[in-house]
Amino acid sequence: MPDHYQTLGVDRTASADDIKRAYRRLASQHHPDKGGDTQQFQIIQQAYDVLSDPAQRQAYDRPQPEFQFGPGVNFGFNFEDVFGMLNQQRQARVLRLAVWITLRDVAAGERRMVSLATATGAHTVEIDIPQAINDGDSVRYLGIGPGGTDIVVQFRIQPHSHWQRSGLNLTVEHAVSVWDMIDGGTIEVEDVLGNRIAVSVPAESRPGALLRLRNRGLADSKGNHGDLLVRIQPTITYPVPVEIRQAIRESRGK
Fold first, then answer.
1. I want to staple 185 with a disulfide (CB 3.0 to 4.6 A). Which of 24, 142, 173, 180 is the partner?
2. Model-level pTM greater than 0.90?
3. In angstroms, rounded to a whole number, what is the distance separating the alpha carbons of residues 191 and 4?
């Protein structure tokens, strides 16, 4: 096979404009109408036809190998076709299942053993739970099933009575003494992983106010972090101390 780059006198990394300029220069020199050699002009033209077309140039730069099976017998294999057929076979052999996980699993991104029921019996495989995955998202695990099959897992997240999720942010309600809401104080909040965090409640906080704890929500595999939002609601602990009741009476003029 002729070296088309050498024919045009350009490098293999030459741009389309470089190839066009080289062709025009050589075509002007070797055109038969100007006394040039017809065979040489055809070689130049062929080189330009291949290298000026992106698809033909790519095929020329990455030729498909041929395999020799015997004297005078060549069988050419297009590996893209072969890989395409293998991929179709893999698609046909995929196993699908749904796995229920908790919000804590979403936060931790831990490993989990799951069971597969197939025609050949029950199988157990281990999968990684992606951090911050969303309810209903599917993940494909390559070659971990029986006989090297792929497994597609759809993750379902169990609803939580305590936490509310919005993207990477988590919101939780927390009861706060009415006295702390009036005069300020400190409460202890537990995050979704069980870590306990001391949180300051500002004086004169309103019922339903949100206290934002930066980067204490969910984290994904890209290093992004959400916030933990604590919605405070007042509560009164009984019995109310006598001195507080007396102070309230005095403030009301009783």
1. 180
2. no
3. 66
